[in-house]
TrEMBL record:
Keywords: NADP. This is NAD(P)-binding protein. The keyword Transport does not apply. It comes from the Eukaryota. Transmembrane segments: none annotated. Coiled coil: none annotated. The keyword Cytoplasm does not apply. One of its GO terms (molecular function) is oxidoreductase activity, acting on the CH-OH group of donors, NAD or NADP as acceptor.
């Protein structure tokens, strides 16, 4: 009965994660959305479509410490997880505000918002779940990064795009490298990795993207389910190859 927590699941890649996870009724799936007023129509259809799936929708705004703590408090209640703990934590939710910003016209408020959501969100949610003792001893923590978070990939990317977002994903990469080491003091069996989903057809990726969410997420779940200790701190492309830092 593995337990999955996925953030940002009302659309895009997060919704596809839920679509694929609820097919297996052995999974307990916690589908997080930004707020109680989020449009969860598609998410509800996906959950109801997989009859008798074991999935619930909870709100968790990764830009809000208060919301993160409330979410973890809800999970800590016996009726949500019982005696189970989180086996797979997928940090998927993220924002890319004003992609046309480059490094010479960064708008501080927008960059702050992206750092808050894309870096501090996954950091604080992981810490809150750890502190509440809700992570299983061999939890897999999966950070959805981007090729734009890689220095090496970005150097070859012309024209360079989404400078603020790219900076936030590079910071996320460093967060994961630190978490991979720091979490060992508490959960020696834990594995923390980053994955680049590729250019995916979602609201963020746009219509011209290469991959369907189904292909990208199918590949990412294969990686998630095959992680070993030796992978701790690694940065994958959804195809399975490593992304250069
Ligand atoms: N699509 C691509 O080509 C691509 C490429 C590389 C990396 N990625 C990464 O893949 C992940 C998913 O991207 P996507 O393409 O599915 O993006 P998307 O279509 O824009 O969906 C983003 C999801 O994150 C949620 N979200 C945003 N801010 C949130 C917050 N503060 N709290 C909770 N949820 C929040 C959104 O909820 P709302 O509906 O409430 O806004 C939505 O469910 C992201 O980490 C992204 O950086 C995507």
């Amino acid at each position: 009965m593995p337990v999955y927590v996925v953030t940002g699941t009302n659309r895009g890649i997060g919704l596809e994660f839920i679509r694929q996870l609820v097919r297996d009724h052995a999974n307990t799936v916690i589908a997080c959305v930004r707020s109680p007023t989020s449009d969860v129509g598609s998410l509800q259809s996906v959950i109801e479509g997989a009859k008798n799936s074991n999935a619930i929708i909870l709100d968790c705004d990764i830009s809000s410490t208060e919301s993160i703590n409330r979410f973890v408090g809800t999970l800590a209640k016996q009726q949500v997880l019982g005696r189970q703990k989180v086996d797979f934590l997928v940090h998927n939710a993220a924002i890319n505000i004003k992609p046309e910003m480059n490094s010479l016209n960064l708008e501080p408020d927008l960059v702050h918002q992206m750092i808050t959501a894309n870096v501090l969100g996954p950091a604080l949610l992981t810490s809150a779940l750890l502190t509440a003792k809700l992570l299983s001893s061999d939890v897999r923590i999966f950070h959805i990064s981007s090729g734009l978070g890689s220095m090496a990939v970005s150097l070859d990317h012309k024209p360079r795009q989404s400078a603020g977002y790219s900076i936030s994903k590079a910071a996320l990469n460093m967060l994961a490298v630190h978490q991979a080491e720091d979490i060992k003091a508490y959960l020696p069996g834990a594995v923390v990795v980053l994955v680049d989903p590729g250019w995916v057809k979602t609201d963020m990726g746009g219509k011209n993207a290469i991959y369907e969410p189904s292909e990208s997420v199918g590949n990412m779940l294969k990686i998630l389910h095959s992680l070993e200790q030796s992978n701790n701190g690694e940065y994958f492309h959804h195809s399975g190859r490593r992304v250069p830092w």
